[in-house]
Specification:
- This protein has one domain: Ribonuclease P/MRP, subunit p29 (SH3 type barrels).
- It is built from one helix and six strands; from the N terminus they run ββββββα.
- The protein has a six-stranded antiparallel β-sheet with strand order 4-3-2-1-5-6, with no helix packed on it.
- The longest helix has 4 residues.
- The chain is globular and about 30 Å long.
């Protein structure tokens, strides 16, 4: 089950998401459903957003969790195996 403590070790595709902060000012504020994820980007309703330098707010039921995109920098299938300290 996905929760705030283990969200980085789960699949993000299908979750509602909002870009809270981004290095690229045009990407801040984009929101919608995550439809795909690559090594360096997240695709939210057809809009490609860089993971590096972005902060995402993801809905988990009634709660929202903020994720630093720098922690997401890897292929989704490799991120599951990676050890992440102090999350």
């Amino acid at each position: 089950m996905r929760n705030a403590g283990n969200i980085l070790r789960h699949e993000l595709i299908g979750l509602r998401c909002k870009v809270v902060k981004s290095k690229n000012a045009t990407q801040a504020g984009i929101e919608g459903k995550i439809v795909d994820e690559t090594m360096k980007t997240v695709i939210i309703d057809g809009k490609r957003v860089q993971k590096k330098g972005s902060v995402f707010s993801v809905a988990l039921g009634a709660k929202r969790v903020e994720i630093d995109g720098n922690y997401l920098l890897s292929r989704p299938e490799d991120r599951i195996k990676k050890k992440i300290s102090k999350w």
